[in-house]
Amino acid sequence: MTTKDENQIENKNEDTNDFESLENEINELKNKEQEEIEWDFTKAVSELNLLKDSLARAQADYQNLLRRVERDKLDMWIYITSNVVLKILPFVDNLERLISVTPEDLQCGSLFEWIKSTYSGIIKTLESMWIKSYDSIWQEVDANLHEVMSQLPWKQWVIIQEFEKWYKLQDKIIRHAKVIVGNWEE
């Protein structure tokens, strides 16, 4: 073999080495680029999950706010209504007393009929506002509903007279009954 042939073979080997070297560099760049893409993708997925979580929390907070506002509106309505009704109830009590103590011979006049219709109109209005009154006579005393004003000899803790009825607005007691109870033990 001549030197010329040897030089050509060496040049081919160098070219092959250069080609392999370039091919290796290209592969390394591709791998590096692939790793960067995968890292960016992983980072983007992570950020997306964080955003989804933030959105879910914001939606839950909004729903909680809506429920709280509705509950507060209802509580405010109950508070205002009960305060107004508490101011009206003494008039209702007076009408009840007037109707119950009016002698029978005076119950036939138009004034008495007007008083009865006024009383029933007020009661219907209160009922339309979900306000109910309850009669306590001959029932046992319940500390949550009754305020004992006095005691008389009778069955122990049985209500024998009621000065004022108790009223309830939905589930809230707005006025306790004022009652007289028995205190005699059998």
- N-to-C terminal Cα separation, in Å? 139 Å
Question: Considering the protein shown, what is the CATH homologous superfamily of the domain at 132-186?
Answer: Head domain of nucleotide exchange factor GrpE
Low-pLDDT windows of residues: none
CATH topology of the domain at 132-186: Nucleotide Exchange Factor Grpe, Chain A, domain 2
Number of helices: 2
CATH class placement of the domain at 132-186 = Mainly Beta
Major sheet summary line? 3 strands, antiparallel
Task: Give helix and strand order, one letter per element, not per position.
Answer: HHEEEEEE
Output the radius of gyration: 45 Å
So what's the overall shape? rod-shaped
Helical content, roughly? 55-70%
Structural class of the secondary structure composition?
A: alpha+beta
Name the average pLDDT.
Answer: 86
The fraction of residues in strands falls at 15-25%
Describe the overall structure.
- InterPro entries: GrpE, GrpE_CC, GrpE_head.
- This is Protein GrpE.
- The protein has a domain at 132-186: Nucleotide Exchange Factor Grpe, Chain A, domain 2.
- Helices cover 63% and strands 19% of the residues.
- The chain has 2 helices and 6 strands, in the order ααββββββ.
- The chain has helices at residues 3-101, 110-128; strands at residues 131-134, 146-155, 159-164, 166-169, 172-175, 177-184.
- The strands form 2 sheets. Strands 1-4-5 form a 3-stranded antiparallel beta sheet. Strands 2-6-3 form a 3-stranded mixed beta sheet, with no helix packed on it.
- The longest helix is centred in the N-terminal third of the chain and has 99 residues, at 3-101.
- The protein starts with a helix and ends with a strand.
